Amino acid sequence: YSPLAPLRLPLSDSTLAEGKVYLTPEMLSVDDILDIEESPPRPRLQPDQEGGINEDVFIVRPPWSRMCWLEAIMGCPVAAHVDAGSIYSEPYLNGPQEIDKIPGPRDNGWMDLLVEYAFTLTDNANCRYYVSHPLMRGSIDLVAALIGYESLSFGLFDRPTEIRKLAELSTEVFMMVADALDAAVPATAGGRVSRFNMYAPGTVSITQCDASAAVSPRHYEEFFFPYDELTCKHFNYSIIPLHSEYLHTIDTFL
Questions:
Q1: Whole-angstrom Cα distance, residue 132 to residue 178?
Q2: Among 227, 183, 195, which Cα is nearest to 129's?
Q3: How far is CA 70 from CA 1, 6, 76, 142, 176, in A?
Q4: Pairwise CA distance, residues 142 & 211, whole Å
Q5: What CA–CA distances, in Å, run from 99 to 56, 74, 85, 125, 138?
Q6: Which of 40, 121, 143, 235 is the most exposed place for a label (fewest CB within 10 A)?
Q7: Which of 60, 80, 56 has its CA nearest to residue 8?
Q8: Which pLDDT score is estimated for 92?
């Protein structure tokens, strides 16, 4: 990909974000960010194309993929670093024992904004593209996002019960958000097109377990795999992308 470019982020007050700014749902308007540039760029239909297909690839648009939707819904501060061209969440709990500080999914406005985004994309699509789920992080990733990697690592030994409760809550929020998005976006021929541009004849989710790079195979299997399995069973089809840093999860998956 080309080098990172500064982020052009229009705010609801008709200004552009500058420097480093912490976002709230009130600062963003779906109409303003609907066509915000994705990175990396996604395939777009050419003027003479129709039907949501570009050669042999489904044209897919998720709600703004750069946004940390699930982390924000669970209360994490979201920082936009305009000059660096990045948006990221920051942990805010001092440990898994502070689970009661996590807001209900509908208590902070991010959930409403995400569903509105999905509705607006659906209206805007007009057979030119398919609307998918955005990037949605799985149970271990959300735990790491909420408490940070250090608290995650120590918590496996010091607070195993609380870590499991946090993973369970993260899984529940994941499934609830996915179900809300599916309710907002009509099915396509009885199925869904994922953000990996693939069709499945039923519900489909893409979860991930990137943070498993920080734990042992035994700890991943004991603490987090049951929740990834629960997530996958909730949908007809599921995808979990893997990277070289955590192929130690392969035996557990198989």
A1: 10
A2: 195
A3: 26, 24, 9, 8, 10
A4: 9
A5: 45, 10, 31, 39, 17
A6: 40
A7: 80
A8: 98
Assigned token pair, 138: 């799985």
SS3 23: strand
pLDDT given at position 39: 55
Check if the beta carbon of residue 231 is closer than 8 Å to that of residue 138.
yes
CA distance 121 to 123: 5
User: What are the DSSP E strand ranges found in 57-135?
Assistant: 57-58, 60-61, 78-81, 86-89, 130-131
Which 3 state secondary structure label does DSSP give 205?
strand
CA-to-CA distance for 187 and 165, rounded, in angstroms?
33
| pLDDT tier, 107 (very low <50, low <70, confident <90, very high otherwise) | confident
Contact 157, 88 (CB under 8 A): no
- Is residue 46's pLDDT more than 60? no
Q: Decide: 184 and 221 in contact? Cβ < 8 Å.
A: no
Beta strand ranges found along 90-236 (DSSP E) = 130-131, 192-193, 199-200, 204-206
Who contacts 170 (Cβ-Cβ below 8 Å, separation ≥6)? Answer: 74, 138, 139, 142, 143, 146, 227
| pLDDT over 70, % of the chain | 91
3-class SS at 86?
Answer: strand
Query: Number of C-alpha atoms within 13 angstroms, CB side, residue 192?
Result: 25
pLDDT classification of 49: cutoffs 50, 70, 90: low
